[in-house]
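Table 4 source record.
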Amino acid sequence: MTQFKTLLVPTDFEPASEAAIETAIQLATAFGGTIRLVHSYEIPVGASLGAPVAPFGDYTPELERISREALEAQAAKYKAKLASIETRLRVGIPWREILGAAEEEHADVIVMGTHGRHGLPHALLGSVAEKIVRMSPIPVLTVRAATKSP
């Protein structure tokens, strides 16, 4: 039987990520594992004549501060349920950074939320979860947030 000792849980702070954290806590508790909560963000850039440029000065430190605070706050929210939650903040294309973190952390499984988009929203926004599922060398458990009944 597979032992999930190191669980990588990507978060974008949305309800689907919260559901994934809850699921990962259950798995970590059952297997005596540790959660690595990871958030990845991209530095937005503009484009000028085909060359990327950073608009309006350097806001990178502020973006990093806000991201780190949100990540630490989310981890703190769950520490009462599972003390062994560590955080990782990464900068870059989210799906690449998540796979890189899984490799660096020697994760046994990735537990991640999915928005369940399809059709045009999926085509326009892409799917980080889909790329992770397709490209991950380790198991990936996707979790959808509870949906409200109409």
